[in-house]
Amino acid sequence: MLQLKNRESLDLKGFTVIIPSICVGNAAQLACDLLIASKKMQRVGSLMHPALIPVFGPSAYQHEPTERVASCEIYESSENKLVVIQLRTPLISRHAQSLHDYLCELVHQAQRVVILSASFGFEKREIGTSPYEYCMSESFRETHKTQLENVKWMEFKGEMIFGGGNGLQLFRLLEDKKVPGMLLFRYVLEGDNSTDATLIVRELNDLCSSFLQLEAENKAIKLTIPVSWKLLFGNDVTAFIF
Fold first, then answer.
1. CA-to-CA distance for 106 and 23, rounded, in angstroms?
2. Per-residue b/e over 91-118, b at no fewer than 16 CB within 10 Å?
3. Rounded CA gap, 215 and 36, in Å?
């Protein structure tokens, strides 16, 4: 299932792991793209599983021009002890639980796990409140209680995140396994969600700047747009059809 480059095992002890949910507008996957490109994270392996639709393509990031992309890849920044597990395809539903079980086993030694997701904007019921909601385990809450006082997120109390994909299911499984974790999602609309992805990363950095390490001069965040974003909606329409 797990193919690693130049190593025999994946040791996540002391690491922060970020996983995107397969959600509305691909906002979470785009946010992970930003993190990988901005921090120049290195691909350390790929994950194969029956729940993942096979895909293969050219490099998604300009800092790794010779790499190829697949359905699920693992990127690492050893300097910041940060790992991103990037998903690029929808999940085959009948195998999704098996994949979640495997991911929990893979990350159970991590210091913390952050799941990013999104929900349909029209599902937001309280106008004027933060567009972000979260769930977190008690161990994660205890570790970050000081930072939580500085954010204006709302705590999610529902049973389903509409458009949120597999994020809530994975979070609850991690919680059952006693893995310190948080699920953060933003209400978005379908379309070009690259701006939403940028906002998700900036918001996450407000809580987790200690391990994201994205701040540059004057506490500004500098993000690198991946080369793969040039074709988010395919090639330009040719003039020959008019």
1. 22
2. beeeebeebbeebbebbeebbbbbbbbb
3. 15
Closest CA to 166 of 65, 3, 19, 2: 19
pLDDT bracket for residue 129 (50, 70, 90): confident
Distance CA 3, CA 106 (A): 13
Q: Looking at the DSSP assignment, which residues form a beta bridge with residue 91?
A: 52
Tell me how many domains the chain contains: 1
Confidence of residue 218 (pLDDT cuts 50, 70, 90): low
Contact 75, 43 (CB under 8 A): yes
pLDDT tier, 147 (very low <50, low <70, confident <90, very high otherwise) = confident
Q: How far apart are the first and last CA of the chain?
A: 48
CATH number of the structural domain spanning residue 226: 3.40.50.10900
Q: Please tell me whether the overall predicted TM-score, pTM, comes out greater than 0.90 for this model.
A: yes
Return the higher-pLDDT residue of 33 and 228. Answer: 33
Token pair in block for residue 107: 């990350």
Q: Which domain holds residue 35?
A: 2-241
Three-state DSSP state, 21: coil
Work out whether strand 132-136 and strand 181-188 pair parallel, antiparallel, or are unpaired: antiparallel
